[in-house]
């Protein structure tokens, strides 16, 4: 009986903790997306040139490491905004390139942005409503992302448009899976740190947007 009472006592407390992580994650995600949009706008306004690939990767992985290292302290929040702000700065030159190189660049960007929003909201809502557990996807996603990342670097270095298109399609599927996985992880108690959850969802949205932008750029120029 004592064990049953303890279980009953823990269950509401666990539910409250899960709701807290979910609420904090979406709140922080909203703020980081807004901050990233502001830094992207600043980068576009000041017409920053595209960053060197090594600087981009170094900044990204360095800030990602610091965010993970300090995820349980206030410094973690500082590095979350540093990471998402940096990624916004790298996005600005890409958006400028689409707006200036394509006759319908604005339409392509807005379509990619809208598509990203629809996919994220639909997948998140699906998990929240059905409460399905997608934890089984973790290993497959990790392997797929690694393969797609290496293939993406190869497509960039050797200028292979066909491979680049395939990588973009892969990333759309992988990032969609990652949204399902991370949202499921939160509501089932597998993810208890809202900073880590925010970074995972932000990266999913960021890469989803870039992949849609790439595909629409290939097929959508008038």
Structure summarized in a few sentences:
This protein has 222 residues and is mainly α. It has helices at residues 2-45, 53-69, 74-101, 105-130, 138-157, 161-187, 194-219. Helix 1 packs across helix 7, helix 2 packs antiparallel against helix 3 (74-101) and helix 3 packs across helix 4 (105-130).
Please describe what this structure looks like.
With 222 residues, the protein is mainly α. The chain has one domain (16-219). 85% of the residues lie in helices and 0% in strands. The chain has helices at residues 2-45, 53-69, 74-101, 105-130, 138-157, 161-187, 194-219. Helix 3 (74-101) crosses helix 4 and helix 5 (138-157) runs antiparallel to helix 6. It is globular and about 55 Å long. It starts with a helix and ends with a helix. Residues 1-10 have low confidence and may be disordered.
Keywords:
222 residues, mainly alpha, globular
Helix-strand blueprint:
Blueprint: H1 2-45, H2 53-69, H3 74-101, H4 105-130, H5 138-157, H6 161-187, H7 194-219
Helix pairs in contact: 1-3, 1-7, 2-3, 3-4, 3-7, 4-6, 4-7, 5-6, 6-7
Mean pLDDT: 90
- Shape verdict: globular
| Main β-sheet description | none
* Helix proportion range: over 70%
Unreliable runs, pLDDT <50, ≥5 residues?
Answer: 1-10
Beta-strand proportion: under 5%
Query: What is the helix/strand order?
Result: HHHHHHH
Radius of gyration: 19 Å
Distance between the termini: 71 Å
How many E-type strands?
A: 0
